[in-house]
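Table S2 (continued). Query chain:
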Amino acid sequence: MRIFLRCLLIVLIISLPAFLHAQEKSPPIDIGKESMYFPHHYQKYKLQYGLGFYFTKPPYDWVENAIQAPLIDLQLTMGLPAGFSLAGSVNTIVVSNQVTIGARWNYIYRNFSFNLGYDLGYVLGMMNVGGFKNTGMMIAHYPNFSVGFKTSTLAFTFKGEAVVIGWGQMKMGEDVMVKPSNIFDGVTGAIYMEQRIFRKKILVIGLKDNYVRYYWPVWMVFPTFARYYHIPELHLIWVL
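Corresponding output:
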């Protein structure tokens, strides 16, 4: 957790002077309409994207240290009629990669909002160790919901989701080591704060807790015993 707090503190210290200066000169905007995670009615067929990274800390039972290199995090949304929207993401750290795509239905009441969604994820991992080519593949289902609240300058969103592994396969060379299929993997909970920095550019800071058996970034050490772990993540995303 210390590495998360250090990264968060550095970001806040660096961005604070620019943020205060920009707030004085930038015209007011509706933070709800420019946010990435806050449920709202996106402009029809307009593509919105955010780019950032996140740090994670796997359990010591799996690895001795946190993953030092951050995972690149690309988020995409596109508005549809009747309050629906499409969402997608690409997460990568070279040896571990995930692509997701899904749909949302958004409902707004004054400063509060709500959505229901479903994402389908595909995981691909590749690592050469000891002369063997290790690969991992997985298809995951992520039914989810979000609840949001906004002020004139801030948007807060809580997102919860279930994780179900539909199919998976981890191989060392030609030998199949683990093959999880049709498994309820666990649940996740996250809170995101979105704040305008200047013009319509939004900074997202998120804290996420994964309570799962299998955790896709460390597919190479998937456990074979039924035990759940709390795995934290720190997200920093720039909505472009």
